[in-house]
């Protein structure tokens, strides 16, 4: 994060607070969020899209994708920066409402929202519900009738553009569970328009996540606009939503296109395409999650054990492994796939830094492993640490703001770590860490055991 520096004696310092002090106060593992970094990225993202679309005489809206990382405070930071919030479950809706977010500023996603979730969303006045299937047209229309509301809806389509990091793939149809095909859109839109309790806003798509370039978004915008133009023959189509997916750097090899450049490129393509189609430029909305919250956070771990493992499968008796190339150094930390599932789930790459001190020792290649009973429990596949790294040292793994806490689990009955926000030399808990008692309390037999044993 931007507020991260090193003190003179080599300790990592965020917003004026040292890693050592944070570890002492809150323990490890610990998610440390640089609040000003989040607020700045949220504001800059909105400004980038507003500037780019204002240049072509159009309006934009930015929804923060809460699935990346949501808490009551985080929701408020987004709202204070002028962002709306994208939610995709009743739970995320509950957090947004608890934060006091105006329900009109919420967009509700999901390929299988329950009838109860739809009912709640409609009854509290959620701004937009994204219809993901033909089934949902009738379900949401019925809920809106029950609550005597006119519910605004978007229609999720597959643009056929599937983007992943460097490249994008454009196909006629995508084999995936989200949305409907572009060919189905005119009929679906007509059915929406036929429901007097629904108001049609436009099309929505999301082409993937951790995308480095602008090409996929541009291609997706072109494809959506062609259908958008056809839908205008039926009636008004005030908006279009191109989703999220803007990539961030996890390691020194990652080189994502800055959000400002993507915004300019997409705005230009949208403007050109609308001119070619002789239609008005709609309001164009986006839903970034990772690019706003990801870089803001690092996870602080303590080193437990260090192990040099011989590679190369030598079976010769007495073979030694002093050759660095034939040894892998496993540095194990006090967390793992329960607080960061991304390496195990997506083969995601992270980097690591010694956080509590300076060292002039020669760097060694290390693999950072967790404490779980699984060989895939790796946090950092390959990075360098000073060769004198030792048990008790603190390690920081940067860029763990997105899809880490939100994907955390209690695997092996490991309690989820706390989340703290730091700002201007102060730290405060955003989300409490769990205790073993928290985990035991959920076991229905726990109190029975407790009673008989006391
Ligand atoms: N809008 C929709 C409809 C989405 O499905 C998503 C993410 C976003 C916006 C936000 O995407 P972002 O800007 O954060 O890339 N767990 C995976 C990523 C899953 C993304 C799911 N949808 C990971 O950790 O890489």
What would your notes on this structure say?
It is an enzyme of class 4 (lyase). Keywords: Amino-acid biosynthesis, Decarboxylase, Lyase, Lysine biosynthesis, Pyridoxal phosphate. Pathway: Amino-acid biosynthesis; L-lysine biosynthesis via DAP pathway; L-lysine from DL-2,6-diaminopimelate: step 1/1. It catalyses: meso-2,6-diaminopimelate + H(+) = L-lysine + CO2. It holds the Pfam family Orn_DAP_Arg_deC. With 454 residues, the protein is α/β, with parallel strands linked by helices. It has two domains: 171 residues, Lyase, Ornithine Decarboxylase, Chain A, domain 1, CATH 2.40.37.10; 259 residues, TIM Barrel (Alpha-Beta Barrel). Helices cover 31% and strands 26% of the residues. The chain has 13 helices and 23 strands. Strands 4, 16, 17, 18, 19, 20, 21, 22 and 23 form a nine-stranded mixed beta sheet that branches. β13, α8 and β14 form a beta-alpha-beta unit. α2 packs parallel to α9, α5 crosses α6 and α8 packs parallel to α9. The chain is globular, with a radius of gyration of 24 Å. The N and C termini lie far apart (49 Å). The mean pLDDT is 95. Bound molecules: ligand LLP. Ligand LLP binds next to α10 and α11.
Characterize this entry briefly.
This protein is of the alpha/beta class and 454 residues long. 31% of the residues lie in helices and 26% in strands. The chain has 2 domains: 171 residues, Lyase, Ornithine Decarboxylase, Chain A, domain 1 (Beta Barrel); 259 residues, TIM Barrel.
């Amino acid at each position: 994060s931007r507020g991260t520096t090193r003190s003179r004696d080599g300790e990592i310092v965020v917003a004026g607070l040292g890693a050592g002090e944070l570890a002492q106060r809150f323990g490890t593992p610990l998610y440390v969020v640089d609040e000003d970094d989040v607020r700045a990225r949220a504001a800059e993202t909105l400004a980038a899209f507003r500037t780019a679309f204002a240049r072509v005489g159009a309006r934009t809206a930015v929804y923060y994708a809460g699935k990346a990382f949501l808490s009551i405070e985080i929701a408020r930071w987004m709202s204070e920066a002028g962002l709306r919030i994208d939610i995709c479950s009743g739970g995320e809706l509950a957090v947004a409402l608890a934060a006091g977010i105006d329900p009109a500023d919420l967009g509700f996603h999901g390929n299988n929202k329950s009838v109860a979730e739809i009912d709640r969303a409609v009854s509290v006045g959620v701004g937009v519900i994204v219809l993901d299937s033909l089934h949902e047209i009738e379900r949401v229309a019925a809920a809106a009738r029950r609550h005597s509301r006119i519910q605004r809806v978007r229609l999720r389509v597959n643009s056929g553009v599937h983007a992943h990091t460097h490249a994008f793939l454009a196909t006629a149809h995508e084999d995936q569970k989200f949305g409907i095909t572009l060919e189905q859109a005119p009929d679906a839109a007509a059915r929406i328009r036929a429901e007097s309790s629904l108001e049609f806003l436009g099309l929505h798509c999301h082409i993937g996540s951790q995308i480095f370039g602008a090409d996929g978004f541009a291609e997706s915008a072109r494809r959506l606009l062609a259908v958008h133009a056809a839908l205008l023959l039926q009636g008004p189509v005030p908006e279009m939503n191109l989703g999220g997916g803007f990539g961030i750097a996890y390691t020194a090899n990652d080189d994502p296109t800055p959000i400002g450049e993507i915004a300019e490129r997409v705005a230009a393509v949208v403007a050109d395409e609308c001119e070619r189609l002789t239609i008005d430029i709609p309001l164009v909305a986006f839903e970034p999650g990772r690019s706003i919250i990801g870089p803001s956070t690092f996870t602080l771990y303590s080193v437990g054990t260090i192990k040099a493992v011989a590679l190369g499968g030598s079976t010769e008796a007495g073979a030694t492994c002093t050759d660095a190339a034939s040894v892998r150094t496993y540095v194990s930390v006090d967390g793992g796939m329960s607080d960061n599932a991304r390496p195990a789930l997506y083969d995601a790459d992270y980097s690591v830094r010694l956080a509590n001190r300076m060292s002039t020792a020669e760097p060694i290649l290390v693999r950072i492993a967790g404490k779980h009973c699984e060989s895939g429990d790796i946090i950092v596949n390959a990075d360098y640490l000073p060769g004198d790294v030792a048990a008790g040292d603190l390690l920081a793994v940067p860029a763990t703001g997105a899809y880490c806490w939100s994907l955390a689990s209690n695997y092996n009955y490991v309690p989820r770590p706390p989340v703290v926000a730091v700002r201007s030399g102060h730290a405060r808990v955003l989300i409490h860490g769990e205790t073993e008692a928290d985990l035991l309390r959920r076991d229905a037999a726990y109190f029975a055991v407790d009673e008989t044993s006391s």
